[in-house]
Amino acid sequence: MKRFSRYFISLIIISIMIYFGLSYKLHLEKEASTNYIILPLIRFSFAFPIIIGILLRLPKLIFEIKEKKQWTFDWIKIVVIALPALFIAVSPFLTYTFIGEYFYFANELIVSQSTLLITIGGLIFGYVLLDSLVKDHELKTDSLVNKEKTIL
Fold first, then answer.
1. pLDDT digits (tens, 9 = 90+) for 31-79
2. Rounded to 10 degrees, what is the CA torsion of 57, 125, 24, 10?
3. What's the gap between Cα 55 and its chain centre?
4. Which of 6, 9, 25, 64 is 20 to 30 A away from residue 17, measured at CA?
5. Strand, coil or helix: 68
């Protein structure tokens, strides 16, 4: 029953955050359509999915933190999964910087108005950011399993 209530409370908090976030995004879209300042909308469009991705992983991380063990950071997961996802999530914002003219992919995302890819990239980055925090023995166990597979 304790686990059920923990998941239920997490679901309610995440649902409330999504509701208010989408309401705020609608407000920013209305503001952008009236005064033609689109930068706040683009900032919010890449930051909000990252926050939701973090919130999706947070309940499990809190449960894991209660165990007293050594923690480490899985850099491979960050480099292989999170950084490309972050690039996809931030690419429309990069078009408004001095390096934006070099990102043809980002310009295509803005022109096609494909916000789904940007949202998925932000969710993946936020989730993997917290998921890359692992207990030290889990990482060593994983590397030992990989060594045994290469020997056989």
1. 989 998 888 888 898 899 999 999 999 988 888 888 777 778 889 999 9
2. 0
3. 9
4. 64
5. coil
If you write DSSP's letter for every residue of 58-91 in order, what string do you get?
A: HHHHHHHHTS---EEE-HHHIIIIIHHHHHHHHH
Phi-psi region of 93 (alpha: psi -120 to 50; beta: other; left: phi over 0): alpha
DSSP at 38? -
Q: Which two tokens stand for residue 135?
A: 């207990």
* Tokens of residue 126, six digits: 């936020």
pTM: 0.77
Rounded to whole angstroms, the Cα distance separating 114 from 52 reads: 19
What confidence tens digit (pLDDT) does each residue in 4-36 have?
888 899 999 999 999 999 999 999 999 989 998
Joined together, the tokens standing for residue 68 give 């007293």
